[in-house]
Amino acid sequence: MPAVLVEQRGEVALVRLNRPERLNAINADIRRELPAAFRAVEDDAQAAAIVLAGAGERAFSAGQDLDEAARFTAMDVERWFTDQHTMFAAVRASNKPTVAALVGVAAGAAYQLALYCDLRVGHAELRIGQPEVTTGLGSIMGTSQMMWHLPLSLNAELSLGGELIGGTRAREIGLVNVLADKAGVLDKAIETARHLASRPPHAYRLTKERLRELTQQAFDELLPATIRYQKRAYESGEPQRHMPRILARRKP
Questions:
Q1: How far apart are CA 84 and CA 32, in angstroms?
Q2: What is the span of the domain harbouring residue 119?
Q3: What is the structure's pLDDT at 251?
């Protein structure tokens, strides 16, 4: 079963994270398949816009698959985060309108993935945020990325506390652009993507290129910083201690 599915909704390509039994948690399969899916849609002349969503009704994505991460050591950090950075880069590189449809939960790496889309549609009951610090990892990629979206005080609140916030508050502080009823999030995301695609495509592309240019240096610095800090995290032993405890609480 593919970990990423692509289907056409008229002129909109719907790209789904496809691990619903694991709340679409991001693992090696998603990190490998998502960049290829985005590149294929980017090259598809029939696709005017992209909506990124999760399979099932429970979650956009719970973030990094902790079953996978709990088995990692400091030796795995460079490969892991290089692949993750490649996944983010593929979403960031799209010159077509990209909209994330956020249902249920969007946490950690999935929250970051959504922030690389142009816009985000959620619902009031959505739980969204950056819980890495609770797992024993430093909040490195997410904290750096949130510098483009939030004042430092709000960034510190989400990064250091690690709690997820609700969809209404996320809308108020600008992390979510549009709120809909939970059942209508996907339709609203597709509608939003079609609206963006109605703009002159060359002007849209030029604007996205400039937005990337404004943050390119910081994006290029993300990967080496993440590798450096997360190696230190695993060398401390904290992820190896905290991730199994979190998994034990989640599983009956």
A1: 9
A2: 4-197
A3: 59
**Is 140 within 8 Å of 90 (Cβ atoms)?**
no
CATH of the domain at 117: 3.90.226.10
Structure tokens at 55: 């399979």
Q: 97, 196 in Cβ contact below 8 A?
A: yes
Residue 63 placed within a domain = yes
Burial of residue 126 (number of CB atoms within 10 Å: 0-12, 13-18, 19+): buried
| CA distance from start to end of the chain | 26
CA gap 140, 131 in Å, rounded: 11
What's the whole-model pTM score? Answer: 0.96
- pLDDT per residue as tens digits for the range 198-216: 999 999 999 999 999 999 9
For residue 159, being part of any structural domain is answered with: yes
* Tokens describing residue 167: 């969809």
pLDDT confidence tier of residue 247, bands split at 50, 70 and 90: confident
Q: Helices (H) and strands (E) in the chain — how many of each?
A: 10, 9
Starting at the earlier edge strand, list the strands of the sheet with 98-101. Answer: 4-9, 12-17, 49-54, 98-101, 119-122, 178-179
Instruction: Tally the domains of the chain.
Output: 1
| 180 part of a folded domain | yes
Q: Is there a domain that residue 116 lies in?
A: yes
pLDDT tens digits for 41-97? 999 999 999 999 999 999 999 999 999 999 999 999 999 999 999 999 999 999 999
Any idea which residue has 């902790």 for tokens?
66
Please give the pLDDT value at position 249: 83
